[in-house]
Automatic annotation (TrEMBL):
Homology family: Belongs to the DNA photolyase family.
Protein's UniProt name: Deoxyribodipyrimidine photolyase
SUPFAM superfamilies noted in UniProt: Cryptochrome/photolyase FAD-binding domain
Matching PANTHER family: CRYPTOCHROME, SI:CH1073-390K14.1
Cofactor(s) listed in the protein's UniProt record: FAD
Length: 389
């Protein structure tokens, strides 16, 4: 897989969808070279919705509601169920993990950032992340487990770092997955060893003779011991240069300050980074699409240049205007619009904050029915939801 495997187009998303083989997915999804869908960048950014993805698959294949692929779609909506109800609390430990939060470091060691730990499974994961902006879910879990349980780095530090480099970074899915691995969002820490890597990864990922080459019982003891495991021998470790994370789009993408005159008296459809699909059909016929990036939000959550390119190219295909501004300045520029419409994604809600009260929010298309209250586990949510009609 290369960095060009995710063209930011609807056509590419539909082609990826058409290639999904549910039976192959169920059989091989845990292997790094397995038949996973790689739809996640298109789903995160709204190029495809979950209902569209599901419909596209069932149009070609029998897909039982309990199929592993439907289950995986459910995890995405479950994480958003938690975020919509817990808000900023998902950025803190949901409950105590194997060790107190104070036992973990708040800085990521340089050898991890550089893919230079001497553990091939970790170093290959970092190299793949930087080269492509994508990681198989198994590799994400291995990386998170190593960072938290062996190197004693706080899960939030690792989650923030990984989020910035992922093309499909979704705050709920990413940060709650790290909590699940850390044991602050699950009942026990997720652990892996060299035998697990050998079962599911190519040979150059195999990690015999490294700190993860031990039993699960030994790994559990390590996870509950506050002493960090030292980095392994450097040997044939790769050594990577971490790409910079940018708090705004590169100038070449052509974003400009908002122009209030362009929105005056018009209905405006906000083409925001998590809504890169078609506008709703029921908008007024003269609605102006405006692509937006919220500057203050990206100062908090910077992205790689690769992700900025993905979003900017898709926004340019959907809107004649690309605006970059802080949330108050954006809303002020829209003050004289006839109406301002947007898909109600929690990323944008967080980015706009109190400034978003004038937005006419359109619901995110859901694959599953809404569940009242807050479910403390995926299994609880899964029992209470069903596929939407």
């Amino acid at each position: 897989m290369t960095s060009d495997d995710f063209p930011p187009t609807r056509e590419a998303a539909l082609a990826r969808l058409a290639a999904v083989r549910p039976a192959d997915y169920a059989r091989s999804r845990n292997a790094l070279d397995g038949a996973v869908t790689r739809l996640s960048p298109y789903l995160t950014h709204g190029v495809l919705t979950l209902p569209e993805a599901h419909a596209g698959i069932v149009a070609r294949h029998l897909l039982d509601p309990q199929h592993k692929l439907v289950y995986e779609f459910g995890w995405r909506e479950y994480f958003h169920h938690v975020w919509e109800r817990r808000g900023e609390a998902i950025l803190d430990s949901l409950h105590a993990g194997p060790l107190p939060d104070s036992s973990y470091a708040d800085a990521l060691p340089a050898d991890i950032r550089q893919g230079h730990t001497g553990v091939p499974a970790i170093d290959r994961a970092v190299a793949t992340l930087y080269a492509t902006g994508y990681l198989h879910n198994h590799a994400r879990m291995w990386l998170a487990s190593y960072v938290v349980h062996l190197r004693k780095v706080h899960w939030r530090t690792g989650a923030d770092w990984l989020y910035g480099h992922l093309l499909d970074g979704d705050l709920a899915s990413n940060h709650l997955s790290w909590q699940w691995v850390a044991g602050t969002g699950s009942h026990k820490p997720y652990l892996f060893n060299a035998a697990n890597v050998a079962k599911y990864a190519p040979r150059n990922w195999h990690s015999s003779g490294t700190p993860i080459d031990c039993s699960y019982e030994a790994l559990d003891r390590i996870a509950r011991d506050p002493v960090a495991v030292a980095a392994g021998a450097r040997g044939d470790a790769l050594g990577e240069s971490e790409p910079p994370l940018l708090d705004g789009p590169p100038a070449a993408h052509g974003y400009v300050a908002p122009d209030p005159a362009a929105a005056h008296g018009r209905d405006v459809w906000l083409v925001h980074p998590w809504s890169l699909g078609a506008a709703p059909a029921d908008l007024p016929g003269d609605t102006l699409p405006v692509a937006v990036a919220i500057a203050d939000w990206h100062r908090r959550w910077p992205w790689s240049a690769r992700r900025w390119s993905f979003v900017a190219e898709r926004q340019r295909a959907l809107a004649p205007l690309l605006w970059l501004a802080r949330a108050p300045a954006l809303v002020a520029a829209l003050a004289d619009a006839r109406g301002v419409h947007a898909i109600d994604d929690p990323h944008l809600r967080q980015a706009l904050g109190a400034a978003g009260t004038r937005i006419q929010w359109h619901p995110v298309p859901r694959l599953f029915t809404s569940v009242a209250g807050t479910c403390g586990s995926f299994s609880q949510w899964w029992r209470r939801t069903r596929l939407a009609d």
